[in-house]
Specification:
7-stranded mixed sheet; 403 residues; alpha+beta; 15 helices
Length: 403
């Protein structure tokens, strides 16, 4: 294409991240922090595997970039491959372009939640409009209320309903009329989409959020959950009502989505097991986590997740069979037996294997940020060893430049 004007694209493969660990971060931690376990713990950095790994890396790389590459990089924002920016509609309906919306005065501010607890608005969350709906207007919500009765398994958990409720509540907030004005006040966004969120480097380094590497779906929601239980102020996403992305998934992947629906159902069951145990591992008060994460994310946090999961699975299979889809019911049960057996073992016990993995990964992310802090301090002092490591980081990053 001849390059992208005004953009400097970089592509990181797993091997490139491995070089950053092996040539820069691990040696720095060993030399400056006397950590002989650095290589093993810093294995949390990576881009291959469940979505949790690349989601965390896409945020954390901004902190590394700020310290070792360019201190003017102060934030990061993620855009998925099936999201695009409808610039024409943004300007026509909001009066501002994409980059003007990024200059949002409340990103990085402070506030209080609905119960008076202090928040740091270090996260930044946009909204979505479906590609098929944008003709009706930029503010058409991407998750409408279901226009059907719940099926058998949905009588236990009707996931489209809380998702639509959360989406509509945010979209219908009357900014500038009788609600927040968008300049000095806004709402917190809890139910975020992976491709519509950003975070400031300062907030990254203070709160050290991460998505555990065993999370394969809803990695965006697990990311903010990781900071629960750390006290006040709690890290939160500020909602920007006018920053809206177009969601093109169904436009080019509709057939693939339909073909993968059994996997999607089982992914929901896995999420119920993983998020419920994750919440227990993060806080002694499950109700407190649900109170913040409801209605959508909190719907996957249950005091009896195994019972709910098996009931949903059994009713889904029975409903499929009752409609004459016996083959699909068999496929569902076979795939569930294969995938959920390991998940059940992973969340069982006290402490569970999940809780132990979470502890180890948190230690890895703490070491990552401790190492960056120490490198920054030594670079400011002119330390020659730190300068050498920074040069190595620049060479690794330069090799990842595209074009």
């Amino acid at each position: 294409m001849g390059g992208l004007e005004h953009l400097e694209p970089y592509a990181f493969a797993e091997a490139d991240v491995g070089r950053l660990v092996d040539e820069v971060l691990a040696p720095a931690a060993e030399r400056f922090l006397d950590r002989s376990d650095a290589s093993e713990l810093l294995g949390v950095l990576g881009v291959r595997g469940p979505y949790g790994r690349h989601h965390s890396f896409g945020k954390a790389i901004a902190a590394l970039w700020h310290v070792l590459i360019d201190p003017e990089v102060v934030a990061t924002f993620k855009t998925d491959l099936d999201h695009s920016w409808p610039q024409e509609e943004l300007v026509a309906e909001t009066g501002a372009s994409l980059l003007e919306h990024f200059a949002y005065p409340l990103w990085g501010g402070t506030g209080v939640d609905g119960r008076g607890r202090r928040l740091e608005l270090g996260g930044f969350a946009a909204a979505l409009v479906n590609e098929a709906d944008i003709g009706e207007g930029l503010f058409t919500i991407d998750v409408p209320f279901p226009d059907r009765e719940p099926e058998a398994d949905e009588m236990v958990f009707f996931s489209p309903l809380p998702q639509a409720l959360s989406t509509l509540a945010e979209a219908s907030t009357r900014y500038g009329i009788d609600g927040p004005d968008g300049a000095t006040t806004a709402i917190e966004r809890v139910h975020v989409h992976a491709g519509t969120v950003g975070i400031l480097v300062d907030a990254l380094r203070r709160h050290r959020p991460f998505t555990p590497s065993f999370i394969g779906r809803a990695e965006d929601q697990a990311y903010i959950l990781s900071t629960f239980g750390e006290g006040e102020p709690r890290l939160a996403h500020v909602h920007h009502r006018e920053l809206i992305q177009r969601h093109d998934k169904k436009a080019f992947a509709g057939a693939a989505i339909e073909a993968a629906r059994i996997g999607t159902w089982i992914g929901d069951y896995e999420r119920l097991l993983l998020f419920s145990e994750l919440a227990r591992a993060l806080s002694e008060d499950l109700g407190e986590v649900k109170a913040v994460a409801d209605p959508f994310t909190g719907g996957f946090i249950s005091p009896m997740p195994v019972t709910v999961m098996f009931l949903r699975l059994a009713l889904k299979a029975a409903a499929l069979s009752g409609k004459g889809d016996a083959r699909e019911a068999e496929d569902l049960l076979a795939m569930a037996a294969e995938r959920l057996s390991g998940t059940l073992a992973f969340v069982e016990g006290d402490p569970s294997e999940l809780a132990e993995r979470l502890r180890v990964e948190r230690a890895g992310w703490d070491l990552f940020y401790d190492t960056l802090d120490e490198l920054e301090r030594r670079l400011a002092e002119g330390d020659e060893q730190a300068e050498e490591l920074a040069d190595r980081a620049r060479r690794v990053v330069a090799a990842c430049a595209v074009g």
